[in-house]
């Protein structure tokens, strides 16, 4: 090892450049793997903390679907699932849909001019995701905390009275902090919502005439199941009515979230509910986490390919540098062979140089990769609004560190193969007679 260090010190510039190249490849691998690990671990923690043990969707629906076909008879299912399986502690139907929102200021500006000329530049209607649910049907599920305002006035769904939509409407809405900020709305304000968009500024006044007004009764924190969304929360029946006759006629929801009294029996409950409700597909938490893992695996594969390109380039560069080093020291190697050094000893000297270069690369690349990962995490956390506390896009674990060490070792060993054989096969007599 002393000889390897001595040889590398003779060419400090070349040694530094090679170590830096290996370090960059190592840093890239560490960065990509720590991001993949962080997203996977944080997603798994969120799913586990949600309280959702099973999730029911329309039949023949994939857990990875971008949208879910309507689940029929949502209010009936809220009670029927518990009657079919006593282990179901909570069955909460959710209707998830995009809506367009407007506030009082924009309405005033739109009404001030029939062609929308009075609307200031940059003022516009805001799109956001919305959830219709039955507030009292969420026991055991992690729901957003209302930090301002009284929240919903009724734990049930008062407009859905006796199986009809003849009950009183509350016109209540809870906004999460992201949507409240977009609308500049506080508790007590009035906002308007509609599934339809406005074609342009001249259509905004007409949009308000056709939209429904809702009173803001609460502001909530971010919601871990929709960490990047601005959200509005409605009573299920009132959101159904907002969407039109098809939603009320079929009593539509998008999903039914289930919390079990004993989650250790989730597989048995999944089977019971699948049999009892053949028009539904029931997913377990394992299915949900499997979908997360599948998505992360795609990213990890893509990241691995990018990292592999960096590793190959670093390996070829290191191989070239070691070959040049052997060529420059060919006479010295021949002398060593002449005085009794075996071929294996000469080859091992080249391997040592490669491993030392790898160690120097690790010393450079590991800190750079970790610093880069945490910098990217900080950027993404500030970029994505509404992330729950503790969410991290980065996780540094033994697998990430071990992968960095494995990359460096692989670069050193692979890069040394060609130069080592070249050094072992140098002709002693020819090199000693060379000028």
Protein described:
This protein is α+β, with helices and mostly antiparallel strands and 435 residues long. The chain has two domains: 2-46 and 291-433, no CATH class; 73-278, no CATH class. Helices cover 53% and strands 15% of the residues. The protein contains 14 helices and ten strands. It has helices spanning 2-9, 12-49, 74-84, 104-111, 177-183, 204-210, 236-243, 245-249, 266-276, 285-328, 330-338, 343-383, 398-424, 428-433, and strands at 54-58, 88-103, 126-133, 146-148, 172-176, 190-194, 212-220, 231-235, 255-260, 280-284. The longest helix is centred in the C-terminal third of the chain and has 44 residues, at 285-328. The mean pLDDT is 81.
Shape: elongated
Give unreliable regions as ranges: none
In total, the number of domains comes to: 2
Radius of gyration: 32 Å
Provide the spatial order of strands within the biggest beta sheet. Answer: 2-3-8-5-7-6
Helicity range of the residues? 40-55%
How many distinct helices? Answer: 14
How much strand content do the residues show? 15-25%
């Amino acid at each position: 090892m002393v000889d390897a260090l001595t040889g590398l010190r003779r060419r400090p510039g070349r040694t530094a450049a090679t170590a830096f190249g290996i370090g960059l490849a190592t840093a890239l691998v560490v960065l990509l793997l720590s991001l993949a690990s962080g997203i996977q671990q944080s997603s798994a923690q969120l799913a586990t903390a949600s309280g959702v043990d099973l999730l029911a969707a329309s039949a023949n629906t994939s857990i990875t679907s971008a949208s879910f076909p309507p689940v029929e008879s949502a209010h009936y299912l809220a009670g029927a699932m518990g009657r079919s399986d006593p282990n179901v502690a909570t069955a909460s139907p959710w209707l998830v849909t995009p809506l367009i929102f407007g506030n009082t200021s924009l309405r005033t500006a739109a009404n001030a001019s029939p062609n929308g000329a009075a609307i200031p530049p940059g003022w516009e209607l805001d799109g956001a995701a919305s959830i219709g649910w039955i507030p009292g049907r969420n026991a055991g599920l992690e729901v957003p905390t209302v930090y301002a305002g009284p929240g919903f006035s009724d734990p049930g769904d008062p407009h859905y009275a006796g199986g009809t939509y003849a009950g009183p409407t509350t016109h209540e809405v809870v906004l999460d902090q992201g949507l409240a900020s977009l609308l500049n709305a506080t508790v007590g304000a009035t906002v308007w919502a509609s599934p339809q968009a406005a074609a342009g500024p001249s259509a905004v006044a007409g949009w308000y005439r056709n939209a429904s007004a809702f009173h803001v009764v609460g502001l909530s924190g971010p919601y871990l199941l929709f960490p990047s969304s601005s959200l509005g929360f409605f009573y299920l029946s009132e959101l159904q009515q907002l969407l039109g006759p098809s939603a009320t006629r079929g009593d539509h929801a998008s999903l039914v979230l289930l919390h079990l009294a004993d989650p250790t029996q989730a597989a048995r409950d999944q089977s019971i509910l699948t049999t009892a409700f053949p028009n539904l597909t029931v997913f377990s938490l394992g299915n949900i986490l499997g979908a997360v893992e599948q998505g992360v695996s795609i990213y990890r594969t893509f990241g691995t390919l990018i990292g592999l390109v960096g590793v190959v380039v670093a390996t070829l560069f290191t191989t070239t540098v070691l070959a040049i080093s052997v060529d420059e020291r060919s006479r010295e190697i021949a002398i060593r062979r002449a005085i009794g050094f075996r071929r294996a000893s000469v080859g091992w000297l080249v391997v040592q140089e490669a491993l030392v270069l790898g160690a120097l690369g690790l010393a450079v690349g590991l800190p750079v990769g970790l610093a880069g990962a945490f910098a990217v995490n900080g950027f993404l956390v500030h970029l994505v609004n509404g992330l729950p506390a503790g969410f991290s896009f980065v996780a540094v674990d033994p697998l990430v560190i071990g992968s960095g060490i494995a990359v460096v070792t692989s670069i050193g060993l692979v890069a040394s193969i060609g130069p080592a054989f070249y050094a072992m096969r140098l002709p002693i007599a020819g090199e000693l007679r060379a000028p």
